[in-house]
Amino acid sequence: MDPGDKSSCRVAVAVLNWNGAGHLRRFLPSVVAHHVPGDRIVVIDNGSDDDSLKTLSSTFPEVDVVALPENLGFAGGYNAGLSILAERLDAQWVLLLNSDVEVTSGWVDAMVDAAQRHRWTAVQPKIRAVDRRAEFEYAGAAGGYMDRFGFMFCAGRIFDAFEQDRGQYDEERSVFWASGAALLVRQSAWEEVQGLDVDFFAHMEEIDLCWRLRNRGYVVGVATGTHVYHLGGGTLGQSSPRKAELNFRNNLFLLLKNDHRRGIRGRIFFRQLLDGVAALRFLTEGKPDFFRAVIRAHGDFRKLRPRMWDKRMAERSACDTVSVTSGTPSGRYQGSIIVDYFIRGRKRFSELPADLFR
To answer: Which pLDDT value is given to residue 235?
Structure first.
């Protein structure tokens, strides 16, 4: 890609890579095979020190590369990479794609078409597990939601209960958040909200992005007419204490920064109590590393709380003049997914009371 020759395209498919040469060899061929002429495929390399760059130049010469000098995390890597890309390429949409995702025929067209039909600003496909191909995958499944206490779940996946994709969630609909594993965002909106929040580093930064978009009146959706397959845990494993630490901390960041209703201090305090219960459960289950992960997460949250409070004020100011479209489903579940799952035994999204989504 010649920096002096800025061209235009419909979609820039941006794959973020860090020491993932194996993932590139395994998954990038599907992206190339189902490439739409006129769109662009770009790998943003996050300072890899394996043979990723060599693999890209020798095996995928048709793929553009933005090479960053160091690992900036998921959020920082995308922000820096897409900023450099914007200087070279004028794209209507950017499509954030994990390096461990296998795509299918027509996936980009289906997402763009759904977004244009429904006037969505951000959209994901259905996401299935690459090794259990009929089953929804953890990171996004058939679209993301949030309960009244800030706990995240998906259509097709609640905690560790995964449903088979039998078409039960094929109605195209707006959701609260869309997965960063395969996330299409209108370029102008990405620039308006200034991309991802680097304080998240990794995990839940796409939920923060979607929430900020929604607070500005934009709508997030799921294109159920297409699907991709996600390996998951490609950088941090699903059972990683570090991942747990980031998730607990970043969930608190999300609430403080984006929940602009009154009483946020009380909701944060109550959520921290619930996190404490989770930490004690880890301890009784013989998982001291996860117990310590929750403690570290809360310590980090306290340290960065003033910065997040400033961001909250800036976000509220940016959204004060926005009139959110009335009648648009919020994707907020007014019940408690903890109570539903662990006490009432509701393991499927379809078992949740529909009238509590508002």
So the answer is: 43
Question: Is there a contact between 10 and 39 (Cβ–Cβ < 8 Å)?
Answer: yes
Q: Is 145 exposed, middle or buried (0-12, 13-18, 19+ CB in 10 A)?
A: buried
What does each C-alpha distance from 356 to 153, 179, 263, 330 come to in angstroms? 14, 22, 21, 11
Superfamily the domain 7-230 falls into:
Spore Coat Polysaccharide Biosynthesis Protein SpsA; Chain A (3.90.550.10)
Residue that is written with structure tokens 């013989």 in the block: 286
pLDDT score for 315: 94
Q: Could you tell me the pLDDT band of residue 201, with boundaries at 50, 70 and 90?
A: confident
Written as six digits, the tokens of 205 are 């930064």
| 76 Cβ contact partners less than 8 Å away, ≥ 6 residues apart | 196, 198, 201
- For the chain, the C-alpha Rg in angstroms (whole number) is 20
Determine phi and psi for 225, rounding to 5 degrees: -85, 0
**Which residue matches tokens 């960041």?**
253
Per residue in 54-102, pLDDT tens?
A: 999 999 999 999 999 999 989 999 999 999 999 999 999 999 999 999 9
Residue 358: predicted pLDDT: 83
Quote helix, strand, coil % in the chain, to nearest 5.
45, 25, 35
Which of 201, 221, 200 shows the shortest CA–CA distance to 210? 221
**Whole-angstrom distance between the N-terminal and C-terminal Cα of the chain?**
46
Domain chopping of the chain, boundaries: 7-230, 241-320
* Residue entry with tokens 């929604």: 214
**Which one is predicted more confidently, 184 or 243?**
184
**C-alpha–C-alpha distance, residues 154 and 225, integer Å:** 17
Chain mean position to CA 277: 26
CA atoms of 264 and 269, how far apart (whole Å): 9
Confidence of residue 122 (pLDDT cuts 50, 70, 90): very high
Task: Give the DSSP H or E segment for 33.
Answer: helix 21-33
